[in-house]
């Protein structure tokens, strides 16, 4: 199994929070895969921001408005993660 970019879940999470984090991590991993396949490997800032999303500290819609280095150019990983999140919601 490939190594995850993200940290392990705390062992004492309530079941509903664990389920929510797993879902957000699934979206984030998908977003990273899409971005990497299109030639944009994730930088440390992108990984850190997606980890905050997984942890429930920020909403993906907020990240999709922020660029990793350029505020006018959101990370492809954020945009792909947002797209995956929206597909699940519809």
Topology, element by element:
Elements: H1 15-37, H2 44-54, H3 60-63, H4 76-89
InterPro entries: VbhA_sf
Protein name: Antitoxin VbhA domain-containing protein
Region (Disordered): 67-90
Give an overview in words.
- With 90 residues, this protein is mostly helical.
- The protein has one domain.
- 58% of the residues lie in helices and 0% in strands.
- It is built from 4 helices and no strands.
- It has helices at residues 15-37, 44-54, 60-63, 76-89.
- The mean pLDDT is 85.
- This is Antitoxin VbhA domain-containing protein.
- InterPro entries: VbhA_sf.
Instruction: Name the helix and strand elements from N-terminus to C-terminus, one letter apiece.
Output: HHHH
DSSP helical segment count: 4
Biggest sheet details:
none
**Number of DSSP-assigned strands:** 0
Helix content: 55-70%
Beta-sheet strand percentage?
Answer: under 5%
Q: C-alpha Rg, in Å?
A: 13 Å
* Low-confidence segments: none
Q: Could you tell me how far the N terminus lies from the C terminus, measured between alpha carbons in angstroms?
A: 30 Å
What is the overall pLDDT average?
85
- Give me the secondary-structure category: mainly alpha
Number of domains: 1
Q: What overall form do the CA principal axes indicate? A: globular
InterPro entries: VbhA_sf (IPR043038)
Region (Disordered): 67-90
Protein name: Antitoxin VbhA domain-containing protein
């Amino acid at each position: 199994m490939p190594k995850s970019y993200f940290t392990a879940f705390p062992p004492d999470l309530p079941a509903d929070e664990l389920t929510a984090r797993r879902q957000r991590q699934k979206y984030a991993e998908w977003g990273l895969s899409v971005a990497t396949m299109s030639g944009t490997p994730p930088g440390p800032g992108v990984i850190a921001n997606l980890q905050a999303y997984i942890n429930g500290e920020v909403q993906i819609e907020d990240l999709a408005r922020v660029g990793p280095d350029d505020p006018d150019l959101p990370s492809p990983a954020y945009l792909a993660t947002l797209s995956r999140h929206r597909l699940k919601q519809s």
